[in-house]
Amino acid sequence: MTSPIPGLITWPVLTGLTLVLAGRWWLLRDSFVDRLVNRALAAALCENLLRDAWFEQSLAWLLPGNDSDVVNIARQLSLGATLLGISNIYGFAKLWAGADPAHTWRRQWRYYLLTITATAVILIAGTPARHADQLIDQALGWPAVVVCVAFSLPLGATALLLGRVSVREMRATGATTWQERALYTAVLGTIVGLAAIAVAYPLGTTISLMTGQPSFDPEMHWEAWSGFLLSAVGAPAVVAVPLISTLLTHIGWDRTGRYCRRLQPMWADLTAAAPEIVLEMRGRTDPAIRLHRMTVEIRDSLLHLKRYSDSPDDLAATGSDPRIYARRIAEAIANKAAGHPPRASRFTPRHQVQPGARDLNAELRQLLTVAKAWPHVRGLAKSP
User: Fold this and answer.
1) Rounded Cα gap, residues 140 and 206, in angstroms
2) Which of 105, 125, 132, 357 allows an S-S link to 143, with CB 3.0 to 4.6 Å?
């Protein structure tokens, strides 16, 4: 079918789909599921291009043969591209259901073989419609029913599998974060859409054939809009949720990345004063690991700098005032930089610095509070 959707809608949406696909190939391509999702998105892009009137006319101009034959083959191949995307969705749904990841590609090649078979059936059964220069629903007849069944069975099987797995996951874990709620909402919307197409498309064609009535939608506008909304809007919306989360993490805009940036100035000064406690980090490190490392290294630096503090008390023994705490840290760094010898341990056990708050979250909150006050006393740490 040639899409009835205006280019002003189609091309911005397909541009967004292309950007999502490019982003996933850049950031999310390591796991089996990610690669299957990326292949499904690529198939969805091909599907929608094959339905676009401008693209079909471009193919007719580029390829040999009768223009109407090229356009009609492109229309019917768009159904095969849809099935190719569905086969990848079914593949990762099987993994989600608990299938053995070691046999992922062996299973997937079987799904691809079924896709090729179904596409061949669509092309063979669609021959009368092509010869008449008509769409499937315009030609009708039993070949149209065969096309509908060959197209709808994979959609129905995928909707059933996705529905069963989604319900199981929601019952087991629930949806606590906005990412999980958005993901499950988009998945359920996609499942409902797939199931509706799988039932309505062959049922409507069969009823029209049995009653001798023309198709209620001979131009196949309903199929075009539903396919567009699912493949170019719904499915990308599902996979854009983890992409956005990964992208925010990659550029440091997630909460963990923000914490790392807030601790960075104080961490840099402390580790410069006690470089022996810093462990080498090679390559790009996961933000959660980096935050944990920064927290540990700040704590170890404070243990080291305690011996250079003029305070008779522990560096942390400052009550709840982070500015006093930060000032004592800066003074200890300045004393060490000035060449003052470390003080002998003259504190009683109750004055010994402890590794920090027992609760790591509480320790992190404390360090973030001190880091906020750090810029106001940082000059002291650089004093001779």
Assistant:
1) 9
2) 125
The C-alpha atoms of residue 255 and residue 378 are separated, in whole angstroms, by: 25
Q: Which residue has the tokens 């409507």?
A: 204
Say if residues 93 and 158 touch (Cβ distance below 8 Å).
yes
Alpha helices in the chain (DSSP H): 7-27, 32-51, 53-62, 67-96, 104-125, 127-131, 136-139, 141-173, 178-211, 221-228, 235-250, 255-273, 287-305, 322-337, 360-381
pTM for this entry? 0.64
334: closest CA among 274, 263, 273? 273
**Buried b / exposed e along 274-287 (16+ C-beta atoms within 10 A):** beebeeeeeeeeeb
